[in-house]
Amino acid sequence: MQINSFEAYQQAYKHSVENPEEFWAGIADNFLWKKKWDKVLSWNFSEPNVKWFEGAKLNITENCLDRHLAEHGDTPAIIWEPNDPEKDPITLTYKILHVQVCRFANVLKKNGVKKGDRICIYMPMVPELAVAVLACARIGAVHSVIFGGFSAQSIADRINDAKCKLVITADGSFRGNKQIQLKEVIDDALIGCPTVEKVIVLTNTRTPVSMIKGRDIWWEDEVKLVDANCPAEEMDAEDMLFILYTSGSTGKPKGVVHTVGGYMVYAGYTFTNVFNYQPDEVFFCTADIGWITGHSYIVYGPLSQGATTLMFEGIPTYPDASRMWQIVEKHKVNILYTAPTAIRSLMSFGTEPIQGHDLSSLRVLGSVGEPINEEAWHWYNEEIGKDNCPIVDTWWQTENGGIMISPIAFVTPTKPSYATLPLPGIQPVLVDEAGNEIEGNGVSGNLCIKFPWPGILRTTYGDHERCKLTYFSTYKDMYFTGDGCMRDQDGYYKITGRVDDVINVSGHRIGTAEVENAINMHSGVVESAVVGFPHDVKGQGIYAFVIFGNSQHDEDLNKRDILQTVTRVIGAIAKPDKILFVSGLPKTRSGKIMRRILRKIAEGETSNLGDTSTLLDPAVVEEIVEGAAKLR
Ligand code: PRX
């Protein structure tokens, strides 16, 4: 199923559009099914109702583990590089990983977990995180992995939304020279989570933790009590595999639902093609498994293809800015997949940290999560790829399950800052505000997809209406991505960024409404408005305009209090970079905040604020402009 020439890509693309069912059936044939499907695809985007490989039976872990054992059992499945470079890395071969997954799956069973139960995983980037994820899949439990940077409140919201029965966590995690007390955060979260019956705790940092009798149990003790034989649960292709929470324009994060069969086919197919993975190569995706990139390209994509996936516990700048290049050299990494924000951050240290490190094992470089600016693209290409590695700028989203628009390494001619062309099976369209398709090249519009692919989300957990409203109602019979996009004269796609109220901070999606709600929880705050602004390293930063109740307030202290409030309510990742206290916000006569004006002010583009005459109080704009100039 690997595409090896541009002609082969064009043929595959044509086939996928003209006969999608035949095309995807051909791809799905490369996977292991207990029973093949009765129907490849049935769909409508109006409900929406999308089903792939209906009637088929499988278990994704048999595809990720069992099927590789006979011939590749001793191949490293996971290489783990610890936060501390002095500590030894760990290699889990397919055989060892299989045993660990089966054993831990039995631990889950022993603790009452059944097919369909939801399990919350809040863990550091250690091999046991991958084991926990796969163990859930082994027995048909639905995992909901929560990124380690989220607060107790955010975790509680997610646990309650999914009604999780069990939580898997660790005492703590190492991040650079910091330690994060994960179990403590879970303890706080669980005060408000009545559905959770058990908490399994892995020893990692060996920090003291409070273990509650009858609820909390140690990972290490439990695995001793079970054997390593755990037959894989037979799953329907459309059974739920996982829930992953992501932010949108409104309300609380929603639980994006992916199902077993389609997701597996899509993650595996895109992995092997986009990166041109070759047997025995080492693939290093620097994402955290708490995000979709980690799900699809640390765990399921690579393992379904028998690949060796490198998992890194730490951060690129610890102990210093040469860490990534040390890892590439040490583990002879062949494919590196990272985010523009990491590239820009490392770029700021110059080329000195790269010198002396042998990067000659690198063959393919990938980028994901946000638009990559040309400067970062060239630096990545020249300093890291030595002008010799294709860069695949992969555009996709949590809701997509896998890469959607991207070059295929060694196949698609690349172009700096362009995601280039849709992968086979993906039918992008650009639409204008009225929902009309904009045809031809050299055009811009809102990016939609008009035909389903196997990795498309099936619903948002517990609220199908929300799924319909968010993705399938803006434009009739199309999936709306929320991104703006340009298609150039060659038909190449360039993603220009979100067109909704979502900010992309260091490749992480944050809803402005969510941050506003958090800020407004501070007792002194009357009202706030949050927008994104261009940030040299993070891509976008968070800019908060805040009306404070008491005019005598100590600005510095109140800013710190607000940051603390946001950290408590959402997590440190949502902390505003800038807070400007204002006496009013620009509102229309109907009371709507004119974010367009705030965005321009945050961007520093105050010379052309557009028409402000319809504002309730135009004078407030001048005050904000003056305040913002001082803050810069
Ligand atoms: O705006 C796009 C941006 O990230 C959003 C999806 O975020 P998330 O669901 O968290 O998934 C991130 C990793 C898959 C998109 O709507 N985005 C992602 N990749 C790119 C990108 N923007 C430009 N270029 C990309 N390669």
Automatic annotation (TrEMBL):
All copies of domain AMP-binding enzyme C-terminal, residue ranges: 514-592
Coiled-coil residues? none
| GO terms for MF | acetate-CoA ligase activity; AMP binding; ATP binding
The domain of life is: Bacteria
Q: Which InterPro entries match?
A: Ac_CoA_lig, ACAS_N, AMP-bd_C, AMP-bd_C_sf, AMP-binding_CS, AMP-dep_synth/lig_dom, ANL_N_sf
- Record EC number: 6.2.1.1
GO BP, one annotated term: acetyl-CoA biosynthetic process from acetate
Q: Gene3D superfamilies from the xrefs?
A: 3.30.300.30, N-terminal domain of ligase-like
The AMP-dependent synthetase/ligase domain covers: 66-452
Q: Pfam families of this UniProt entry?
A: ACAS_N, AMP-binding, AMP-binding_C
Keywords for this protein? Acetylation, ATP-binding, Ligase, Nucleotide-binding
List each copy of the Acetyl-coenzyme A synthetase N-terminal domain by range. 9-64
Instruction: Give the family, as the similarity comment puts it.
Output: Belongs to the ATP-dependent AMP-binding enzyme family.
Q: What is the protein's name according to its record?
A: Acetate--CoA ligase
Source organism (scientific name): Pedobacter quisquiliarum
Which gene is this protein's source? acsA
